[in-house]
Every structure is written in structure tokens, then in C-alpha cells.
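Q: For a teaching session next week I want to show students how multiple molecules come together into a single three-dimensional assembly. I've collected the sequence lines for a complex. Could you give me the predicted C-alpha cells for the whole thing so I can convert them for display?
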Amino acid sequence: MSNEIHHVAIIGTGPAGLTAAIYAARAGLNPVIYAGLQHGGQLTTTTDIENFPGFENGISGPKLMADMTAQAERVGTKVLYEQITKVDFSSSPLKLWSDDKEILAHSVVIATGATAKTLGIENEDVLMGKGVSTCATCDGFFYKNKKVAVVGGGDSAMEEATYLAKLCSEVYLIHRRDHFRASKIMLERAQKTENIKFLVPYSTTELLHDKTGLTGIKIVNLETDQTETIELDGFFMAIGHQPNSQIFEPYVDLDDHGYIIARNHTETKTPGVFVAGDIADPVFKQAITAAGMGCQAAIQATKYLENNNL
Ligand code: NAP
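A: Of course. Below is the structure for the complete assembly, covering every listed component.
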């Protein structure tokens, strides 16, 4: 067990955590950041990122995260490739555990993100970024004037389909039931959009591909059991996200979907515990908004430490 008490421990190395680290390091706080199971977060599963400002010709997700990590290290962050599995924020200093190792910190930034749910069908991992995606705002541009499908029946699916309909020639909206969770207004907007074709009740059973990527899908009509093949350039799964908030539950407020509720920008109900990025953002879920929130969390953590002489 280490006796060192960190000024700030950051959990999660996506854009939110790494930006928090850069700001905390430059404030002289010698932050420590824990990478968890997916160093770099969701961006490491994308290919080109064309909407992160500063990169005229875009940048690959893994490269952006590698550069952000190097930048955080250069200004004085200690990056540890360990996973925080347990926390106890009931007293100060705050306690965290990486396996059996106890870590003490005066402040914590939770930036553990959310994981996009996927269907779990064969090859979806291999084809991610090669025709398969979980984010229309991120990847829609690559399918300009092409044929795509969106799976899901909630607001995310309606939003993604409506967004893609403005870029793509044809959008199939595939849902497993003829009832939708989506709000009436968003459902109707999608239904009224000319180039969105609803396919219900259908389930996707197979991703068809060649060497370059996705070429189509097989779907099955759940009423008739009939199988159909659709040629496609893009396949978007919009079946919800799972925020990685479970271990923090007693010390933060969660909304109905498990997202941490931030108050006064990035504060949680526990003094010294701040939150940033997708874990607290069911709405925007963008790298740039996560980075912005990481900056806010670091500045608020710095003020907290100053105000409490820590
Ligand atoms: P959601 O409401 O949980 O909907 C998920 C959809 O995916 C459901 O229709 C579900 O089908 C389907 N689904 C789940 N697992 C599936 C599987 N294995 N195979 C096929 N289909 C599957 O998630 P969401 O749409 O991401 O929305 C989450 C929250 O964010 C909601 O509160 C929503 O209102 C909010 N949101 C708001 C906005 C906005 O206001 N602009 C935009 C996006 C999201 P079943 O219905 O059959 O279970």
C-alpha cells in the first residue's frame, strides 16, 4: 500500500480524461491517470476523425489518442495501464483500488465514458470503421450519397436516421418491433423523411463483406421468418449506450439510464469528485465536448484543492 496521496486521480483515458490530465498537470498537480481496459476510449474503435478541430485533413482515432496521451505525459501526467475496480469516496482522502492496490487522492475526475451497445453478430468488430459504425455524427460523412441502414427504435436511431438521410441517398431504419421507444416527435420526423424506409419487425442476422469492408446485410422478418438481403455501404447500430458508472453509484447521482448527473458543470454530490465526458453526457457524446468537459473538471478540481488547502 502506498502512502502517497495524489492531488488528483483521473479515471479513463478518452478525450475527457486526457484533457483533464493536461490541465491538471499544467496546474502543477502531478496527476495520475488510469487507462482501464480500453486506453483511448471509444475513439480507438473509429478510423478517421474529421470533426476534431485543428486537423485540416482529419486524424485517425488511435493517433489522436496516442498524441493526447503523449501530450499529457510530456506536461507531467503519470499514465498507468491499470483498471480501477473499486472506490470508496465516503471519507477524505478518497480511496480507489486497482486490483488489490489501494490508491489515495484528494480529488478524482471520473471520465470512464460510455460503451455503445452492439448487436453481437459475427464480424461486427472486424468491420467497425469499415462500413459498420455506432455513431452517425462521427462517420456519416463517409457515406455521402450512399446507401445505409440504422438499427434501433429509440430516439438515437431516429436521430441518426434523420441525420444520415440528409447525407445519404437511402436510409433503412430496421427495428425488431412495430412499436417504438422513440418520442413521438422524433419518430414522426423520421417517418416523414422521404428517403428513410422503415423495415419492421426485422432482425439483422448477418453482415456481408468483401476484402474492403461491408457490402450488405441479411435480415429476417420476425413475423414471417423470411430472410432478405440488402446491399449497403454503411450499417449503423443505434441501440443505446451503457455508461460505465456502476462502481461510483453510491457517491454520485445517476439518471434513469445510468449516466452520472453533473451539477455546477462537473461537480458530483461528493466533494472532490468531478465528472467529465460521455459518462455524464447522454446528449452530445462527441470527442470535442468530452475534451471541453475534461478541461472544466480539471479547473474545478484545482479550485477545490486550493479552497481546501489540499
Ligand atoms: P433506447 O431508448 O434504450 O432505445 C434502444 C433501442 O434499441 C430500442 O428500440 C431497442 O428495441 C433497440 N435495441 C436494443 N437492443 C437491441 C438488440 N440487441 N437488437 C435490436 N434492437 C435492440 O436508447 P437510445 O435511443 O440510445 O436513447 C437513450 C436515451 O437517450 C433516451 O432517453 C432517449 O430519449 C435519449 N436520447 C435523446 C435524444 C434527443 O432528444 N435528441 C437523442 C438520442 C437519445 P426495443 O424497443 O425492442 O427494446
